[in-house]
Amino acid sequence: MLELLLVAVGGGLGAAARFVVDGEIRARHNGGFPWGTFVVNVTGSFLIGLFSTLFSTLTWYGVPADVARLVQFALTVGLCGGYTTFSTATVESVRLAQSGRLRLALANTLGTLLVTVLAATAGVGVGGLFV
């Protein structure tokens, strides 16, 4: 039950952070490409890679395994899961395509896939420096 509560709280905080970050970016970049969602998904993917690496090995630092697991769930499934939004990215790509902006739709779809995988890989790599 504690896991569910921590994931729910983390998810709420992540969604609120996404709302703020996306809103700030949209206010500054009023164009065709959905930069807000793109930045959110890239940074969130990096953080998921980082947190999953760091907190999977916290027991090496004397943290009990059950506590490390709770922290990992709260940050990865909760916070990062609430922060990232691939469903919004796909809907934005569909809307771009429907409006005739096929190049932007393709750039958003392929760019999001490629850059988020690279960001997650970088997060895992950075996390690996500390374990």
UniProtKB/TrEMBL annotation:
An annotated GO cellular component: plasma membrane
UniProt-annotated location(s): Cell membrane
Reaction equation(s) it catalyzes: fluoride(in) = fluoride(out)
Coiled coil, from the record: none
This protein's UniProt keywords: Cell membrane, Ion channel, Ion transport, Membrane, Metal-binding, Sodium, Transmembrane, Transmembrane helix, Transport
Molecular function in Gene Ontology: fluoride channel activity; metal ion binding
Pfam families, A to Z: CRCB
TM region positions: 33-55, 67-86, 106-130
InterPro entries, alphabetized: FluC
Domain of life assignment: Bacteria
GO terms for biological process, alphabetical: cellular detoxification of fluoride
Protein's membrane topology: Multi-pass membrane protein
Binding site for Na(+): 81, 84
Signal peptide: none
Description of activity control: Na(+) is not transported, but it plays an essential structural role and its presence is essential for fluoride channel function.
Role summary: Fluoride-specific ion channel. Important for reducing fluoride concentration in the cell, thus reducing its toxicity.
Family assignment from sequence similarity: Belongs to the fluoride channel Fluc/FEX (TC 1.A.43) family.
Protein name, entry field: Fluoride-specific ion channel FluC
The organism of origin for this protein: Promicromonospora sukumoe
Native organism taxonomy: Bacteria, Bacillati, Actinomycetota, Actinomycetes, Micrococcales
Gene that this polypeptide is encoded by: fluC
